[in-house]
Amino acid sequence: MVATQKIVYSNPEKSDKEFFVYVHADIYADWKDDKSVPVTDVIQAYNVYTTHTGGNTGVVIAPTKSDLEKVFGFSHDAEVVEFILNHGTAKGVAHSKTRGESEHSHGSEVNNGEVKH
After folding, report:
1. Nearest CA among 49, 48, 7 for reference residue 24
2. How many Cα atoms sit within 13 Å of 47 on the Cβ side?
3. Does the global pTM surpass 0.90?
4. 19 and 80 in contact (C-beta within 8 Å)?
5. Is residue 6 predicted with pLDDT exceeding 50?
6. What is the pLDDT of residues 85-117, one digit of tens each?
7. Which residues of 85-113 are buried (b: 16+ CB within 10 A; e: fewer)?
8. Cα-atom radius of gyration of the chain, to the nearest Å?
């Protein structure tokens, strides 16, 4: 079983939205102390998420490139993911899944680009 967790970043001076990524909690903890651990092992996918309400709970959507540029100064997913990993905060209850389950199987349903929890 692998624990899944959200890493959340917000910058209230630039936006009221929170942005987050899903990580393997145990590997993320190792990565925080040892940056030689590959980011690809830490994250579930190179995807950045927000919600319709701007928080980190609710219907999950992909933020616009404009939103990413406004907050991060760049919009390339890999750069934003690494920024969130370095500057974000672990939030939410980690829950388990087996490694054989799909990337979005942590209680999510993907529909037209939206991930629903």
Report:
1. 7
2. 15
3. no
4. yes
5. yes
6. 999 999 865 555 444 444 443 444 334 444 444
7. beebeeeeebeebeeeeeebebebeeeee
8. 13
Structure tokens at 75: 């919009």
Taking only the tens place, the pLDDT of each residue in 42-94 is: 999 999 999 888 777 888 999 999 999 999 999 999 999 999 999 999 986 55
Q: Are 4 and 78 in contact (CB under 8 A)?
A: no
Which residue in the block uniquely carries the two structure tokens 């404009």? 66
What 3-state DSSP class applies to 10? Answer: strand
Does residue 79 sit in helix, strand or coil? helix
